[in-house]
Every structure is written in C-alpha cells, then in structure tokens.
Amino acid sequence: MQELQLQLESVNEAEEFDGEKYKNLENNLKEASKEEERYWRDKCRADWLKLGDKNTSFFHAETTQRRSQNKIRGLENENGEWKEEEYEVEHIVLGYFAGIYTSSCPYGFEEVLNCVQQWVTLAMNASKIGVRIGSEFKKEWVDGKASNG
C-alpha cells in the first residue's frame, strides 16, 4: 500500500498531470485499503470469538489500547523543532492545512476536476441555493421589519 501511495504522490507532483494514471492508482489504492481493512476486521473478529464480546474487559482493553496508539503526542514544526504542547500542535496542524489548501498560482483545474465524480447536479445546486437565499432574505426582512417597527 505504501508503494501505491508513493506512486500516487509522484503522479500528483509531476510537471505534467496524468489524470488517467492518477485515477487508476487511486482505484488500486482504494482496493488495497479495502483488502487491508477486511484482513484486520477478520483478525479482530477471530480474537473476539476467542476472547469475548463487546461487554467484556477484552473489548475495553482493545479500545483503550487503540486510543493510546491513535493519540498525537507531538509534531515537528517547519523549523524541525519537536512540539508537544496542545496549542503548539494545533498551530502546526492549522498552518499545514492552511498551506496545502492555499495556492498563489493555481492551474490545471480542468485536468483534476475531470477525475472527480460529480454528485450534485446543476439543477440540485440551483434549487438549494434558491431556497437558502430565499429563507435568508425572508429572515433578514422579518428581522429588519421587526427592528424598525
């Protein structure tokens, strides 16, 4: 799975974006992820059959162990310094995502958007916007009238 992730990153960072290759790699990665999930689900089920069900101490021990493994104890900032304080870790995370979702020179949207499946049709979008604008307008008009009257 790591190899597929590296290939996907490589295609994504290439000078010339290949949407078809990206889609294929993404589908392969999804399938590999599903296989791994099935493996762990089956393994977990086998352990539970041997050791107990949801209401036992086994379940609680598994949950506690998973929580401790999933906890982020610290992160390295852009200067290479390790930070463990909650507010510092939060600042690093927010800065990272603000950076990856901000671009000073975006290009190639058509190629990328062609790889994304459309779920909301233009008609669905227009109907939702119209209802929302209408209800917001009505609310403001009522609030404005109430405050003026």
Secondary-structure map with pairings?
Layout: H1 2-13, H2 19-51, H3 57-70, E1 75-76, E2 82-83, H4 86-100, H5 109-113, H6 122-148
Antiparallel strand pairs: 1-2
Helix pairs in contact: 1-2
Please provide a written account of the structure.
With 149 residues, this protein is mostly helical. It folds into 3 domains: 1-71, no CATH class; 73-107, no CATH class; 118-149. The chain contains 6 helices and 2 strands, in the order H-H-H-E-E-H-H-H. The protein has helices at 2-13, 19-51, 57-70, 86-100, 109-113, 122-148; strands at residues 75-76, 82-83. A two-stranded antiparallel sheet has the order 1-2. The longest helix has 33 residues, at 19-51. The protein is extended and about 55 Å long. Residues 137-149 have low confidence and may be disordered.
What is shown here, in short?
71% of the residues lie in helices and 3% in strands.
Query: Order of strands in the sheet with the most strands?
Result: 1-2
Kindly name the structural category.
Answer: mainly alpha
Oligomer: single chain
Beta strand %: under 5%
Proportion of helical residues: over 70%
Would you tell me the overall average pLDDT?
76
Number of structural domains = 3
Counted by DSSP, the helix tally is: 6
Radius of gyration: 24 Å
